[in-house]
Amino acid sequence: MNKHVLLLFIFCIPHLTNGIDFNYPAVFNFGDSNSDTGDLVAGVGDKLESPNGQTYFKGPSGRFCDGRLIIDFLMDAMDLPFLNAYLEALGVPNFRKGCNFAAAGSTILPPSVNAVSPFSFGIQVAQFFRFKSRVLQLQAKSRRFNKYLPDEDYFSQGLYMFDIGQNDIAGAFYSKSFDQIVASIPLVLAEFEAGIKKLYDDGARNFWIHNTGPLGCLAQNIAKFGTDPSKLDSLGCVSTHNQAANLFNIQLHALATKLQGQYSDANVTHVDIFKIKSNLIANYSKYGFEQPTGACCGYGGPPLNYNSQVACGQTKTINGTSITTTVCNDTTEYVNWDGIHYTEAANQHIASQILTGKFSDPPFADKMPFLLNLKF
C-alpha cells in the first residue's frame, strides 16, 4: 500500500448558508496548472511528454503531474468523476457532472503578450457562459443529450471551485519589484471579484476558493531568485515570493469574508492551501517524504534538479550538448514533481488535509450528517 494512502473518515456539514456540504450534482472549476486536467494542452496544441502521468494514468493526461491533482482527489471524495477539460474535443468527454475551465499558466488578470496561457480568469468565465448557453440549447432540443450534459438546475446547485492567482504573483517577479507586485494585488483581486460577481448574478451560489501556495518553495523560483543564500528563509525558500503570496492570501481571505457577508444566500468557503503546503514542506519527513523542494523530474541533479531550459520529459540541445531530464525512482518520496508542480503523493496529502475541514473558513470539521469514506 502506498505509504501516503490515508484511510480517513471525514466529517462534513449539512446544507447550511455559508457552509460546504459535499453533495453537489456538478462541479465547475476555474484555475491554472494546479487544477488543469488538460485544457492548455488541448487549447494551444501543447504536448506533455512521459513521464508525466506515469503514476496513475500510465501516460500523459494533460495534467502537469505524475498522476492525480488535488481536484481529482476532491472529486473522488465527492463521489464524482474526474472533470473533463472544456477544450478537450476527443475521448468522448462527458460533462454531466461538471466541466473544468482551468488551464496551466493562466492568470487572473488579462494575459500579457508573452503569456503561457491565453485563458485568463475572465476568459474562463466567458467560456463557462458559452458552455452553459450551449448546454441549455442542446437540452431544450432533445433529452438524448441528458447523459452527457448537466441539467439546468445543476448550474444553480453546483459547486464553483477556484484555484488561481499563482501566476499573477510568481510571474510578476520577472518584471516588477516587490513593492510593485504588492501594489498590484488589489487590481488582481478586483478582477477576481468581478468574475465571481458575474457567476453569482447568473445564479451560482456555492463557491470554493483556494488561496495560493508558498511560491518561494518551488524549485523554479529558488533556482532563479534564490542563488543568494541571504534571499532564502529557514526552509530554503525564497522569502520575497512567500511574503508576496502571504499578502495576496490575506487580501483574498478578506475578499472571501466580504463575499460571505455580501451574498447572504450563497455559500463561500475559503481554503488555506498556503498553510497546508507550508506545513508539508516544513515537516516533509513526518509525512513520509524525503525531498521537500527538489524536483523528481528535471535536470541538474541535487539539490533542486531543475533547469528552466528543459521541462520534464524533454530532450534539448543547449550550447551544442544534448541534455535529457531524468525522473526519480520513487515519486512518493518527493513533494515536487517538476520544479513547479506537486507530485501525486503530495497532492493526495494536501487533499486529505483540505478534507479535514480545519483549513477552511468557515471550517467544516466536527459537523456530521454522514461519514464520507475517502476512496483514495
Automatic annotation (TrEMBL):
The keyword Transcription does not apply. One of its GO terms (molecular function) is hydrolase activity, acting on ester bonds. The keyword Glycoprotein applies. Pfam families: Lipase_GDSL (PF00657). Keywords: Glycoprotein, Hydrolase, Signal. Residues 1-19 form the signal peptide. Belongs to the 'GDSL' lipolytic enzyme family. This is Alpha-L-fucosidase. It comes from Lactuca saligna. The lineage of its organism: Eukaryota, Viridiplantae, Streptophyta, Embryophyta, Tracheophyta.
